[in-house]
Amino acid sequence: MSLREYERRILAEMEHALAEDDPDLDGHLRSFGADDDSYLDDERPGRWLLWMLIGVAVLVLCAMLAGLYFSAPVQGTAPPTTPASPGAAQPGAGGGTG
């Protein structure tokens, strides 16, 4: 988010006033992080591993939710019927005389 010209001017005035009031603090703040290369990179060892584990966990969760969604019975369909006993006549089996 960029600052407006008015806000930039006010910040510049505040910086100038700080430099006049406390030059030691101003010098310390200006040099903050200047010697540290990792300050600019913000890459810590193992950070990629953390993000990879989070990504794998999200993929597993999505796969589980998709499996649950597609394995749920569709509402409004009849449950499967049990097969008839072997001795019972089945309708339309053609067991009669013809």
From TrEMBL:
Which residue windows does the record flag with biased composition (Low complexity)?
Answer: 76-91
Ordered alphabetically, the record's keywords are: Membrane, Transmembrane, Transmembrane helix
Which parts of the sequence are annotated with region: Disordered? 76-98
One Pfam family named in its UniProt record: DUF3040
Q: Does the keyword Membrane apply?
A: yes
InterPro entries assigned to the protein according to its UniProt record, in alphabetical order = DUF3040
Superkingdom of source: Bacteria
Could you list the residue ranges that cross the membrane?
A: 48-70
Can you name this protein? Answer: DUF3040 domain-containing protein
